[in-house]
Amino acid sequence: MRLSNEWFTALSENEKGDMVTVYGRDQLTQFVESGKFKERVEITWKYEPDAKGMPSAEVATLMESVEEALKKAMEKDKLSILTGVYTGGGEKIWIFYTRTVRVFGERLNEALKDFELLPISIYTEIDPEWEEYLDMYEMKQWAID
Questions:
Q1: Is 110 helix (H, G, I), strand (E, B) or coil?
Q2: What span, in angstroms and rounded, lies between the C-alpha atoms of 99 and 134?
Q3: pLDDT digits (tens, 9 = 90+) for 25-62
Q4: Are 64 and 56 in contact (CB under 8 A)?
């Protein structure tokens, strides 16, 4: 399976009506259908939003560094795949699908060891049908229309 680096961008709203930018990965059909990535991991970073609900430039730069460290650690042997990133309303959420949450946790600690303590929380769920991803992927069509 070849991991695509094709992404799309869409706009959405959170429960409070705040604008959220959605950055979703395209061309993951083989991974969805493989049945190997049954667990979803959501990493949430809450931040002090600006007037538009976005992070400050300084925080955004740090978030980009964290994202790159996570992608490098998780995707090097396709243990986990970053499928979507939501930013807005005072939080950034990275969505990964993984083969194993246990090893994901070990790699997460290793990937973030050089950063100061980050204000993140982690949620995991069994999602063998990739429901979250497929819901997010529907936004691609809205972005095209």
A1: helix
A2: 18
A3: 999 999 999 999 999 999 999 999 998 899 999 999 99
A4: no
